[in-house]
Amino acid sequence: MKNKISIEKLSTTKLAGLCGILMPFVFLISILLAMLYSPWFKWTNNALSDLGAEGVSAFFFNNGLMFSGFLAFIFSIGIIKILSIKIGGYILAISSLALIGVGIFPVTIFNLHYIASAIFFISMTIGLLIIGITMKYNHFDRNMGNTAITIALVAFISPVTLYFFRGIAIPEMIICFFIFIWYMSYGVKISRKTF
User: Fold this and answer.
1) Which domain holds residue 103?
2) How many domains does the chain have?
3) What sections of 48-194 are H helices per DSSP?
């Protein structure tokens, strides 16, 4: 029975790791495809969500976010299985559901979109901060914890760029870029880890 549980945990965490590796690619490809159909989009004047307003770009952007959120959710389940202090993993799961919500409720449904977007960025930042702090008590990988804390701090200060630009696409991508590095790095680690 114990052997069966180990195999189940191993396959779940490997799948979660692969989802953590794939999620940033899906997210970025969907944004690039949406931008191809949005010649009006300017990094300094728009939000990324503007790509989800209408037309073909909305199809790529919104569906890409929903699929990215699904992959992030599976990744967060793997993190929950690994961590001894699980609260940060649960908060990452909430952020992944919020990312799905950002895709379900495009920018044209402003109130719901804004709420989902705010929940995504805030819960992602808090989840990474908690994971970073609590990983000091987890033997899996303290370095990934320190990286998570650094990313959370970057996310907290990235809105400073709003003083230089009208749009928020640049701070959104700054936050996403560092989160993606962590997702991919941790995804590689947990997909290779034997428990």
Assistant:
1) 2-192
2) 1
3) 55-82, 87-104, 110-134, 142-157, 169-192
